[in-house]
Design brief:
CATH topology of the domain at 25-133 and 168-256 and 295-301: Rossmann fold
Strand order of the largest sheet: 2-3-1-4-5
Number of strands: 5
Shape: globular
Distance between the termini: 62 Å
Order of helices and strands: HEHEHHHEHHEHHHEHHHHH
Structural class: alpha/beta
CATH class of the domain at 25-133 and 168-256 and 295-301: Alpha Beta
Strand content: 5-15%
CATH superfamily of the domain at 25-133 and 168-256 and 295-301: P-loop containing nucleotide triphosphate hydrolases
Helix content: 40-55%
Radius of gyration: 22 Å
């Protein structure tokens, strides 16, 4: 009898030991961000970790096929997913083999997430928000529009609507409320300023929350074309020339740097003097007022304990 009890206890201890040594299940870390917010530098950091498969904006082609189908093939490779369902399938297939990191723009995914809650409800998916203040987002985005087309003006109604949509603050606010209400996992919010000012502390805190190792070496990566490899390492969907236009700074970066600042008045309010015309300047002020209202509402909706603070 004692021998049987001994064998039973030995079996239980062995099973517990095996379970303790079993690797943690793979997870999808899903970053939702506004544009021009260092999200692509974040992609580079996650790729430098070497322990996850990285996807840069995998829903972009699917989004544009729905919202802005004209010229999609000039912007994106045909290998990109055509629907959000296909995006989910690719992420889940990869999850079976490895951890997954996916970076998305808020404007490109909020409608998809509203239509299909299964992805949000997935216990393997952990949502992170990376957010920059509206003023630098809007100026940086505007300058990229003008670089792409010197005749670009916000006085064009379709351009104005697309620009405000792409700045992404209403969709960011909507995505946060949707995800925090449905996801089985707590959301995490990181402000771009904290990531720039204190990358070590910010990333270390993020890793602790996500229960993944903090790898200090990942805060530095290889810059230039050899590190980019035409985006293949990122599952980048944009054609190379578009990727270089939108992500040139991240391609040439070697770590998290301080982004450019833009003109403000004596009390710190945006001037938008970078605009190419007084008319565009006035329109940027109008869009800023609406975007900033959504940004402030977003900050007010952050769940207690969700915001990473490094100072």
């Amino acid at each position: 009898m004692k021998k049987h009890i001994f064998l039973l206890l030995s079996s239980i201890l062995l099973c517990n030991s095996v379970l303790a040594e079993s690797p943690a299940p793979n997870k999808i870390i899903y970053l939702v961000s506004t544009p021009r917010s260092l999200s692509t530098a974040f992609v580079r950091m996650m790729k430098a970790r070497g322990d996850c498969e990285v996807f840069s904006e995998p829903s972009q082609r699917a989004f544009h096929l729905v919202r802005y189908p004209k010229g999609v093939d000039n912007w994106f490779t045909k290998e990109g997913a055509a629907t959000f369902k296909e995006v989910q399938e690719r992420l889940n297939e990869t999850l079976a083999q490895n951890h997954v990191f996916a970076k998305e723009m808020s404007f490109a995914v909020v409608d998809f997430l509203k239509e299909d809650h299964d992805f949000i409800k997935n216990e393997d998916v952990h949502f992170v928000f990376l957010v920059r203040k509206p003023h630098p987002v809007m100026v940086s985005l505007y300058l990229k529009y003008v670089e792409l087309d010197e005749n670009c003006t916000l006085q064009n109604k379709s351009t104005l609507e697309e620009f405000e949509d792409t700045a992404g603050f209403p969709s960011l606010y909507e995505a946060l409320n949707l995800i925090k209400a449905i996801s089985p996992n707590p959301v995490t919010v990181l402000l771009t300023k904290d990531l720039c000012d204190n990358p070590y502390e910010a990333v270390q805190s993020l890793c602790e929350r996500l229960e993944i190792p903090f790898l200090e070496a990942s805060l530095h990566w290889e810059g230039g074309e050899s590190g980019f490899a035409d985006g293949r390492k990122w599952h980048e969907l944009k054609n190379p020339e578009q990727a270089k236009h939108w992500h040139g700074d991240a391609i040439n970066s070697t770590g998290f740097g301080r982004p450019r600042s833009y003109t403000v008045d004596a009390v710190g309010q945006p001037l938008f003097s970078e605009a190419k015309s007084p008319e565009d300047q006035a329109l940027l002020q109008e869009i800023y007022a609406r975007s900033n209202a959504h940004y402030q509402a977003f900050l007010n909706e952050i769940p207690e304990g969700a915001l990473i603070v490094t100072h």
